[in-house]
Amino acid sequence: MSQAPNIVDCSSFVKYLFGKKGMWLPRISIQQRECGEVIDIQNILQGDLIFSTGKYNWFDTDPADNVGHVCIVASRETVIHASCLKGGVEEVSLLKYIQPNRFSGARRLVPNSTQLLTFEIPPSMEVETSDDLRWIILSEVAKIERVVERIFSCSL
């Protein structure tokens, strides 16, 4: 379990920040790269994630397709990331992470769309996957259907 916000590495920092806004992400950068929409580096926006190689690299099936670091786009020129080497969170040049020998992809987790829905979930209900959310919604719909059924059966 991460000790964020007191102690973070790059991926736990990203997980923590997005979690504060209600978005669950996996813990490890290679897993985080599987989330969201693939975007071209020319189309990045604030809040997008940039993946690169790092000191220690993870891979799924192809060792050449690895990820060792993740950072969050702060502007067209900078990213924010947690640096294990420097021991803290810093804002640095984006150029460092998009060099051809380091760049491993970019993802957009928050769609650029008006179709984004948000839900308020009581703190007592933990949501880690879409299945958790599905069951919460279905149970609430079932409660509403029972109330509606009682109302109509009483009015007859």
- Mean pLDDT figure: 82
Number of helices: 3
When the domains are counted, the total is: 2
CATH superfamily of the largest domain: endopeptidase domain like (from Nostoc punctiforme)
**Annotated CATH topology of the largest domain:** endopeptidase fold (from Nostoc punctiforme)
Strand order of the largest sheet: 1-8-2-5-6-7
Order of helices and strands: HHEEEEEEEEH
Tell the overall outline: elongated
The appropriate CATH architecture of the largest domain is Alpha-Beta Complex
Short descriptors:
elongated; single chain; endopeptidase fold (from Nostoc punctiforme); 8 strands
How is the secondary structure organized here?
Blueprint: H1 10-20, H2 29-32, E1 37-38, E2 49-52, E3 58-59, E4 66-67, E5 69-73, E6 78-83, E7 88-93, E8 103-108, H3 130-154
Antiparallel strand pairs: 1-8, 2-5, 2-8, 3-4, 5-6, 6-7
